[in-house]
Design a protein that fits this description.
The two termini are about 45 Å apart. A hairpin with a 4-residue loop joins strand 16 and strand 17. The protein has a seven-stranded mixed beta sheet, with helices on both faces. Strands 1-2 form a two-stranded antiparallel sheet. It contains 32 helices and 19 strands. The longest helix has 19 residues. By secondary structure, the protein is α+β, with helices and mostly antiparallel strands.
């Protein structure tokens, strides 16, 4: 049967006609239960009996279950060749190494190089791999070649964390036990073979003071033309004299590793497994007005409006850039900061685009110190490639159409923590004008006793007729009728910085230009000033800092609380909340501080900590939070960023409600609820309007409770997050969780601690080659692309038997065997029963 229509868009007439054909086939050839058949949609998974009309709606709305190409549940039998295990099925079980080499070295094949003369480096790699792929693993072996077996063996090493030495020992044992086995005899030879399947990288020398790169016109320079520092590390003898007798070997003082972006983007289209997914944002995305993907955001739509020619071809790539510094040595007491630059392609569907396997590492900026504002020096190679991809594009082969097209790419925005925001944007995130949205109109004051700048007066974001605007007693003693500050557009910023001359290098004297520290290198991109959303506020770090402030203040944890003696003196200087002012007793010898409305007794602190310690969370939702709660000392410490995310969203409200008065509990609960609603995967635009009005009022309520020292820049920034969601879509695509996990992956590549960046570069190249290989291996082989996670939603066929109230997703965790009974106590059974009543669609009509 012709089933090509199953690949068409679900709204197309061909697909709808095909669904009618499927229904007729199922009722005629299958075994329907009366008027019902099994629904093969992507949600029901052939686990629910539905009428034909309902099945039609499900297939139009959800599409067919992935992989259900043979309708064996609806009357279609397997072909004789499939049953007998004939040629086709045997070929499907083999690794497709020939197609792998064809896609990887397509350019080499098209050039038709000579056999011996004029071979490029890629051509030499190609012919070496062809030779390995043609060699039998052992005499008369039909299932594996030397190359395919080596790839599978190295894949196991990476999946299960074998050490390099153990891998070499395994190869030696295999050679000893099976002398005819044709495999490499060491880890280094195996890695070299896999490395040839990936793409290479280049090393660019840099000034040790971050002034310049030795490339292009300065490629042959031996010293920095800005500060005069030497390009090389000079080797000296014990007496301090330069060695002259030894063979000269120059070592670069600093090296930037550049992984060219263009060939990596081209390879996405050369692989038939990924080229179709790159058009998902245009062909298969739901367009019902809700925010599910960056393509649903206003920034994406504005970009299409400004550049209709670019938007005309859905294959053109939209990128997000993320960067952060990290210590690769797993030693917190050692100061070292390497800065990878990560690119995220947003063309992919939501379940792929944020995965590490689809992210790219174009630059690896070396440590030991953070580049700071000098990061623009290291971004130059990437910006040059982005200019080419925008202005001219590059000719690229599309495997899905078997044609070439002119591929273009554009950078939409950057992702970083708040200090990284300053490095990438050029706007200083410290001082009186730290907020990049409020810019020159940031409401800030300096607290002389706490020695910090606080950011208050959030009443400017309220409607003009709001009661808080005329309330002077509960705030700073003045009425507030100023309008909210206007944000600076990209064109305005470009005009402000048009004559600004960047000065880079650690030894160069910086010229102060107010809050601007430089003109960002991203403005060299022709489209950058027209981007609606250029730099993202990181919700991950904002949540962590706000949670730290709340917990430290409520539990009065030393060095974390915002309510201390200096904060009370600041209140006295400002002349507000006189009840909290310090009072002198014993003729001025002692000072007494009154209890604030958010202060808790010892018993209340025990209850508060007990709620967090005894909380039960789903497996994999967070780490063991109970270990972070110290009941004896009544404090919480040692939690990770994601733990703070979970506690802020789900647990903190319960603890606050159990111990706090309504005056304190209500605004804090509203703040927690705001973040929980903001982090939804699917967001309605109407909900954003409600969130925007709530977050404008919540900080004003907090201003009447907490001292000014509580309101650092992190407490102020949530006021702008709703607008960022409206512009860029759900925050899951624009926060630092995925880049931070990627940094942990790079940290695992470090083997030589003397050269951490070199280790990461070599590890990345090999991993990149393995990811490419994984797309051509037998579908039954476990790889990083299809490895079942601990909390996977996949299930085995025997797990779909039984009741059909719910779609069967997930699989049991642990060592439970099929058929082993699990008994619930009365309380757990009642909880499960209530969950079904409140969440089962079939029951909802009886509960109204």
């Amino acid at each position: 049967m012709d089933k090509e229509w199953m690949r068409f868009p679900r709204e197309s007439p061909e697909y709808m006609k095909g669904v009618f054909f499927f229904l007729n086939y199922a009722y005629n050839k299958g075994k329907p239960e009366g008027l019902e058949i099994l629904c093969p949609c992507a949600q029901c998974h052939n686990a629910s009996w539905k009428t034909g009309a309902i099945v039609f709606d499900h297939l139009i709305g959800n599409g067919f279950e992935k992989g259900y190409n043979v309708w064996d549940r609806h009357g279609e039998g397997l072909s004789p060749m499939d049953i007998d295990g004939d040629t086709d099925s045997e070929e499907d079980e083999l690794d497709n190494i020939d197609e792998l080499l064809n896609d990887r070295f397509r350019d080499v094949i098209q050039e038709e190089c000579g056999v011996n003369n004029g071979l490029s480096d890629d051509a030499k790699k190609f012919y070496n791999l062809i030779e390995e792929a043609s060699q039998e693993l052992y005499p008369e072996c039909k299932n594996f070649s030397t190359l395919s077996f080596t790839i599978r063996l190295y894949l196991l090493k990476c999946l299960h964390g074998w050490s390099n030495a153990s891998f070499t020992s395994l190869l030696e044992l295999l050679k000893e036990a099976m002398p005819l086995l044709n495999v490499p005899d060491s880890y280094n030879k195996t890695r070299g073979m896999i490395r040839d399947l990936g793409l290479d990288y280049s090393k660019i020398d840099a000034c040790p003071n971050d002034c310049m790169l030795y490339w292009k016109d300065h490629n042959n320079d031996i010293s920095c033309h800005v500060c005069g520092a030497s390009r090389w590390i000079e080797s000296t003898t014990e007496s301090g004299q330069t060695e002259e007798n030894k063979k000269e070997h120059k070592v670069s003082a600093k090296i930037l590793r550049h992984f060219p972006l263009i060939p990596r983007l081209q390879r996405l289209f050369m692989c038939s497994e990924t080229t179709t997914s790159l058009r998902w944002h245009h062909d298969d995305r739901s367009k019902d007005g809700k925010l599910r993907h960056p393509a649903d955001g206003q920034a994406w739509k504005d970009f299409n409006g400004h550049h209709p020619e670019f938007a005309r071809d859905s294959r053109n790539i939209r990128l997000g850039l993320a960067s952060d510094g990290f210590n690769p040595f797993r030693a917190m007491n050692l100061k070292y900061s390497a800065w990878p630059v990560i690119l995220i392609p947003y063309n992919f569907p939501p379940w792929l685009c944020m995965k590490a396997e689809y992210s790219m590492l174009p630059l690896l900026i070396p440590g030991r110190d953070s580049p700071g504002n000098n990061i623009d020096v290291y971004l130059q190679p990437l910006i040059e490639e982005l200019k080419v991809l925008w202005n001219l594009g590059v000719e690229t082969y599309d495997a899905s159409t078997d044609q070439t097209f002119q591929m273009r790419a554009a950078l939409l925005w950057t992702i970083s923590d708040f200090p990284g925001y300053a490095m990438l944007s050029g706007w200083s995130t410290k001082g009186y004008m730290a907020c990049p949205y409020c810019n020159y109109n940031t409401n800030s004051i300096y607290l002389s006793h706490s020695r910090k700048v606080c950011y208050m007066d959030h009443r400017v974001f309220l409607p003009m007729n709001h009661k808080y605007r005329s309330n002077s007693r509960d705030f700073n003693g003045e009425k507030e009728f100023r309008p909210p500050p206007d944000s600076l557009e990209g064109v305005e910023i470009s005009e402000i910085l048009e004559t600004y001359n960047n000065v880079f290098g650690k030894k160069q004297k910086k010229i102060s230009n107010g809050p601007w520290k430089k003109k960002s290198i991203f403005f060299e991109l022709p489209y950058w000033k027209h981007n609606t959303l250029r730099h993202n506020l990181d919700v991950m770090h904002i949540e962590k800092n706000i949670f730290d402030s709340i917990i430290g203040t409520l539990l009065d944890i030393p060095r974390m609380t915002k309510d201390h003696g200096k904060a009370r003196l600041d209140l006295q200087d400002m002349g507000i909340r006189k009840k909290l002012h310090p009072k002198e007793i014993n003729q001025g010898k002692d000072i007494v501080f009154a209890k604030a409305c958010f202060s808790m007794t010892t018993n209340e602190k025990s209850i508060f900590c007990g709620v967090l310690k005894n909380a039960k969370l789903p497996d994999g939702c967070a780490s063991n939070i109970s270990r972070c709660v110290q009941l004896g000392e009544r404090k919480i410490c040692g939690y990770k960023t994601h733990d703070a995310h979970i506690m802020l969203h789900y647990l903190l409200q319960v603890a606050i409600r159990s111990t706090m008065s309504n005056q304190v509990a209500h605004p804090l609960i509203r703040l927690c609820s705001f973040f929980r609603c903001l982090c939804k995967k699917v967001i309605d635009l109407k909900d954003l309007d409600i969130l925007e009005s709530e977050i404008a009022e919540t900080p004003c309520q907090l201003e009447t409770i907490f001292p000014p020292s509580f309101f650092d820049i992190m407490v102020h920034l949530p006021i702008h997050l709703v607008n960022e969601v409206r512009m860029g879509g759900p925050i899951q695509y624009r926060w630092m969780y995925s880049p931070e996990r990627y940094l942990g992956k790079l940290k695992g590549y470090v083997r030589n601690k003397s050269h951490p960046e070199g280790s990461m570069a070599e590890g990345y190249i090999v991993e990149e080659g393995l990811i490419l290989c994984a797309r051509y291996l037998n579908s039954g082989v476990e790889t990083r692309l299809n490895r079942m996670r601990r909390n996977s939603e996949k299930c085995h066929p025997y797990e779909v038997e039984g009741s059909y109230f719910f779609p069967y997703i997930g699989h049991p965790i642990g060592g439970k065997k099929k058929g082993e009974a699990i008994y619930l106590d009365r309380n757990s059974k009642n909880q499960a029963h209530c969950y079904i009543l409140f969440n089962c669609d079939a029951v909802q009509k009886f509960m109204r």
